[in-house]
Request: fold
Amino acid sequence: MKALLKQVRRGAAGIFGALSEVLKEVFDEAAYARYLNRAGIASSREAYAAFRRECENGQARRPRCC
Amino acid sequence: MNKTLRALGWGMVGIVGAVAVGAIALRRGEPINALWLVVAATCCYALGYRFYSKFIAVKILALDALRATPAERLENGRDFLVTNKWVVFGHHFAAIAGPGPLVGPVLAAQFGYLPGTMWVLAGAVFAGCVQDFVILLFSVRRDGKSLTEMAKDEIGRVGGFVAYVAVIAILIILLGVAALIVVNALKASPWGTFTIAMTMPIALLMGVYLRRIRPGKVLEVSGLGFVLVLAAIWGGQYVSQNEVLAKIFTFSAPALAILIMVYGFAASALPVWLLLAPRDYLSTFVKLGTIALLGVGIVALHPMLHMPALTRFVDGTGPVFAGKIFPFAFITIACGAISGFHALISSGTTPKLIARETETRMVGYGAMIAESAVAVMAIIAACVMQPGVYFAINSPAGIVGQAPTTAAATISGWGFPVTTADMQALAHAVGEQTLYNRTGGAPAFAVGMAHIFSHSLGGETLMALWYHFAIMFEALFILTILDAGTRVARFMVQDALGHVYKPWGRTSWYPSILGTSALIVGAWGYFLWQGVKDPLGGINSLWPLFGISNQLLATVALCVATTIIIKLHRAKYAAVTLVPLAWLVAATFTASWHKMFDANPRVGFLAQARVLNAGPMTSSTARVIFNNRLDAAVTGVLVVMVTLVLVESARQWMGILRGTREAPVKESPFVKTRSVEERG
Reply:
């Protein structure tokens, strides 16, 4: 029973983890984290402005479906 | 034992699916429960994914888990990035799910629930999912190349040019139609207009919050934006009840059209971070949440469908749009079954994120299944209403009359009883002055969605809030597409103009930004204005035009896919893309023919121009005549161009099969994935 509960808990954590990862990616939070990591800087107004500048052209070109 | 159990399990899925499809197809004369559609769809999708997509993956595409994808080989942390398959799935679904799978099925419900449901299920499993899957894989094998580049490489220059023009044409027509849907949903609706107007300062606030207060906290600010939007919906009812405020937020259709064009221009020319990006986040947040909520609501409430399986309008005399079930059902429902636009996304951002070739099946085929499920929900939302109510909302005044009594009498005369008292009560329940002649599909979907939600959560007292939530959800969706679409089209035009005069190609040069933004907004604004002024409501002529251009793009995508399959020496399996291609060509070309040359003035553009030409000539008649001729010309040009691609593709296929033409496969060379080498 304990093992089953542990498995269920692990499964639920996995699902929530994946969901959170999906949301962070869809909402560009993960992309910003990668940008900070790549540039080796901490989050700030300037860093976010630079991140937005970098991805603006790419994002604006991204098609959205009907 | 395991194998036997699995076979038994899939056998059961097949039997249950067949029973559900049989129940949908054969029951006549009495309402059926929406759960039959849910069960049929679940079984069809499960079988399609498990068996058909597996067959394509193994026999045709030969997916190779050892082959490094462009995300791995060209990883740069920006466009090319190895990403978790569920994350890519979410990304891809968020990009392909627009208002199309909601609006198309609602409009096609005039034929009854059966044609739309069957086309959505069969079209998705055998055509739409296949197109998205194969184009995604072929793009992955070509370093993430776009559809237009692949068409140029595999079919020839004509293919590339036609794909480019088709994309621009679709974008412009789509944006015009989408704007018209918003106009029809918001005209004479102070509550709805106030809510949508409030999303703009909310988006600006989100932009400033993201940039200045909590940089990068997108989920947090989207949650905050969502709460503010809910507050705006709540506040809207007080605006509609206040005489002064209601007057301020009540607009006619032409006034709304002008406001939307001004908005489109501003959104295209303003910095992305200020309006476009936060609105996109807010829209995605609302979209994903609402679709999930609607799915739960349908399963929890399992409402009865009051629309018959087939209505009398299969003969082509429908009030929502004119034309027979074939071909018009198949171009009206695009995104829920197959959409050429998806091929752009399957060959856009997504292939650059795929970690393993084997994941293209789940992302390409699987996300289209999810999109198709959204279309099934839209069919359910449209069909839970009494048919008389559905037709009263969706029929233009030019068909059923302007006065409520005339409209109710006309619709009741068709065999779908509705009274002015019913419509008045419904309008009152949802907080509108009237629900007659609200063409475009969005208000009908909102009423259906409000019906489902109010029966699951909150009861009748919350009907008006749910209705305006649904209107806000659709309008937000559509405005996001308007601003992003205008920008995408602007970049495409700038790219092309850059070949003529270099500075025009610079995306940061303001004369170019303003000029091309005005050009694109002017183009879709023209179609919007045409729709607003159309006595038949606009949707009758513009939605088929959009459907035709979208399906013609799918024809180009399937030509590319078939050509590559034949080049891969798998011609014996080419039917997988050739059969949907043949079906699309038959449906789209027949629809185009009818829209251009049908003798019925409600169907044929030229016939309507002739009828108007024979009557008294006023300036507005002259404009409608010109618009009809223009629509016929646009359809004709698209058909001729796609015919050229078809002929060029067929020459390639015949040449390869006869051995008279070389068939070089333009794939990137095989590179073994690093993770295998790391594993040793």
